[in-house]
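Researcher: Go.
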Amino acid sequence: MDFIEELSWRGMIHTVMPGADEELKKGMATAYLGIDPTADSLHIGHLVGVMMLKHFQRAGHRPIALVGGATGMIGDPSMKSQERKLLDEETLRHNQEAIKKQLAHFLDFDSDAPNAAILVNNYDWMKNFSFLEFIRDVGKLITVNYMMAKDSVKKRLNGENQQGMSFTEFSYQLVQGYDFLNLYREYGCRLQLGGSDQWGNMTTGTELIRRTEGGEAYALTCPLITKADGGKFGKTESGNVWLDRRYTSPYKFYQFWLNVSDADAEKYIKIFTELPREEIEALVAEQAADPGKRPLQRRLASEITTMVHSQADTDAAIEASQILFSNKAAESLRKLDEATLLDVFDGVPTFEVERADIDAGIKLVDLLVEKAPVFPSKAEMRKLVQQGGFAINKEKVTDPMAVASADMLLNERYIIVQKGKKQYFLIIVK
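Model: Structure:
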């Protein structure tokens, strides 16, 4: 597999430095990509870079994932309008371990293959570097004029907030540049991968290598991912879409990809899966023939949820996705864990009732008119029951005088009430 050719047809190349293609054709090469460890989970905004590393390894090359412990303590100014919160070493180490576990879903770290992936933390080589040593050995090699010419610096200096840029952030490109130099020396790393917003920092690294070692090094960037409507990729109303299930459940993760637009699905399936070109083209043709079936979104959501979580999580997410549209979903509903149940019914009207009412054997008609007013009157509830349009936990109710019992509780504290085909209510038993 030709790495650059593969990334090209997938729409994953923004800029590539001349000579990179020839370097990769010489044999197994080493490339690195930096990951910001500001949280103990990656989010889907990181996935483009991670997929670049994955394709790099698939092409027979050796990927290095660099967790930016040192640079994370500074904060990258690239395309940021404000300085970021700085982290302590203990937090950075915790985040590094969590990130490695997630990267292991994409990269082979543990085999004895010559191109097994490597995880490094730049804090390990920066922590004993004194300030005087750094400005003497590294700072003297790059002029202020060179650093000021970078777009990331100019944007901050000319920004609307007029806050300027601290020396800490100004020095960021030197620290990142030194990372490349160090990996060049330690691992023979000649290529850095990253987003297009990193180009200025990356070329500082290639310049350091040229000036100190007389060596050739290269940079390759991917475009920043956007949505077809111009909105920011990976952001929802509730914030980032995370890879860790503690922050984004597999169900919500699956739903994010399932609900992307047709135009975005065609773009994303090339970037975020390993599916071959022929298979993607067949899916695009299938989508064009019958857009309502959404084969692109379904395959995209399935592939990436399985890669990030597991096949079992994908199967459960698909089953949960069908609950709202199936009249035979009672069994599936009872299998849902609490987090997924709440995700599926997120946004529906909610009522809270006392556990004592359930334990006392309250009748459904009293529960749903007086305690949790799903119905404005008992007469309306009886009428809907007679029409066959009322269900508890996806099971049709034929007797409004039936007793609400503990057996009805999902995860021991929830009841799902359904009026008609599409109107749902969530009752929480306290």
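Model: The mean pLDDT is 92.
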